[in-house]
Design brief:
Elements: E1 15-16, E2 23-33, E3 37-47, E4 58-75, E5 78-89, E6 108-109, H1 111-120
Antiparallel strand pairs: 1-2, 2-3, 3-4, 4-5, 5-6
Length: 123
């Protein structure tokens, strides 16, 4: 990637990672960011989905998040770069209910973002 990143990640007061809002980054601060990655800390709100996602408890887990793998998106309003991967570190661990097979995706790969970006700049 050439050039420099002009904007810090905009995720501060609640950025859903999932389309159904069962995984949300909240109260994020981004002290480290560059053209290739951004590292921030905050709260990862995860729906336990037990007995189902509508009634499941929401766990607020302290997390360090690394956004990486920027992809170029082209549109009529211009070209911009977006992150296509989020990796997590949980300094205090995960609640028991979110361990093992119930653990959140890590890393979170936005494959649809990468695919759409490839097609948006083609031709």
């Amino acid at each position: 990637m050439r050039g420099r990143l002009l904007y810090r990640p905009a995720c501060k007061p609640g950025c859903p990672l999932s389309g159904d809002s069962t995984a949300i980054l909240d109260t994020m601060t981004w002290p480290t960011w560059s053209a290739s990655k951004a590292v921030g800390t905050g709260t990862y709100k995860l729906d336990g989905c037990n007995p189902d996602c509508a009634a499941g408890p929401v766990y607020k887990v302290p997390a360090e998040v690394t956004l990486s793998k920027p992809v170029k998106v082209c549109s009529s309003s211009g070209t911009r770069w977006v992150w296509s991967r989020a990796s997590f570190r949980f300094p205090h661990g995960l609640p028991k209910a979110l361990r093992g097979s119930n653990a959140p995706l890590n890393p979170w790969v936005f494959s649809s973002v990468s695919s759409a970006a490839r097609h948006s700049c083609a031709g």
